[in-house]
Amino acid sequence: MPELPEVESLRRDLAPTLVGRTIRQVELRLPKLFKAEPGLDVDTLVDKQVRGLERRAKLLVMRLSDDLVLVTHLRLTGQLVHVGPGGESLAHGGHPVPAWGTELPHKSTHLTFYLDDRSILYLTDIRQFSRLWLMRSEEIDHFLAAAKFGPEPLEDAFTPVGFEARLSRRGVPIKTVLLDQRVIGGVGNIYADESLWEAGIHPLRPAASLNPDEVGRLHAAVRKVLDYAVREGVAFVPMGKAISDRAFPYCHGRQGSPCARCGSLIEKARVGGRGTYWCATCQTAAG
DNA sequence: AACTACTCCTGGAGGC
DNA sequence: TGCCTCCAGGAGTAGT
After folding, report:
1. pLDDT tens string A171-180
2. Rounded to an integer, what distance in angstroms lies between the CA atom of residue A242 and that of residue A256?
3. With contact defined as beta carbons under 8 Å apart, do A149 and A245 qualify?
4. Among A65, A214, A46, CA closest to A136
5. Cα–Cα 20 to 30 A to A102, which of A85, A127, A253, A269?
């Protein structure tokens, strides 16, 4: 699923091809994906120019002319593809689609933007969990505040001290807390597992039980893992399966395979309803 | 405030 | 082969 690194990579790829383009026509085939504040609707997008592309947590924030903002969350299986006038792919990102989805549009293409240079931006989503919100620019701060996102993990606002404070009253497993967007904005299931593996901390440890040294290691691990993924443009695990010819992810999706660090077999269990992978040798159960 | 259970969806895997 | 059941999961909501 698209987490912070995938959304950031998508933003960087898409910005050069999309910013400056004007939307000429919009086709919304799955209305439930699209939310708009009163007085706005999907047709409001027609003849609006894309002025900028930003990211907050896992949200893609598209600034438009006439002081409008279109916010996109790809959730589990959303994908954006920008196709040039000749059918060539200009930029794409998000969840890969099955083989039948390589020809666009297809049955899971729910939203299509026809742009002024004859390029087309497609939003596809097999499981239909993606959401888009159209609002006036004065509303975006309120919209983001309501989400109560924690700090951006790759920015200076994410500090060990602040991180420890956010863990201190949580008795649930640290894995569950890492997925809470109010603690860190943008971490999802794969990078939560990878961060805990990197830090050598067991996913079932109660968050508040981590000592300052462990919090510091986990803080550094989250930054290291996300920074690596953003820089390398690492593809996430498609449909929950390990990519055997890649070193990364080191533990997520690799149950039964040897740990890259110690050779013990990677274990799997459900933690807080999420498939969770760890090395029982490297990742200590007690602090 | 913290936590849990439930919901939304489809495609792929496994059982028989 | 084909039908059935189960599983994957981000985040919003309701209930404890």
Report:
1. 999 999 999 9
2. 11
3. no
4. A65
5. A253
Active site residues of A: 2-3, 58, 274
* Euclidean distance between CA atoms A95 and A276, whole angstroms: 20
In which residue are the tokens 């699923």 written? Answer: A1
Separation of A129 CA and B7 C1' (Å): 12
First to last CA, chain A: 31
Q: Which residue is nearest to nucleotide B6 (CA to C1')?
A: A273
Question: Are the CB atoms for A276 and A203 separated by under 8 Å?
Answer: yes
Closest CA-bearing residue to C1' of B4: A272
Least confident among A124-133, A157-166, A242-251, A255-264: A242-251
Using an 8 Å Cβ cutoff, are A159 and A152 in contact? no
Helix crossing, A4-18 with A212-232: angle to 10°? 30
List residue ranges whose Cβ is under 7 angstroms from nucleic strand B: A 32, 98, 107-108, 126-129, 169-172, 176-177, 239, 272-273
For residue A231, give every residue at least 6 positions away whose Cβ sits within 8 Å of its Cβ, in sequence order, or none: none
Helix/strand/coil percentages in chain A, nearest 5:
30, 30, 40
pLDDT score for A102: 76
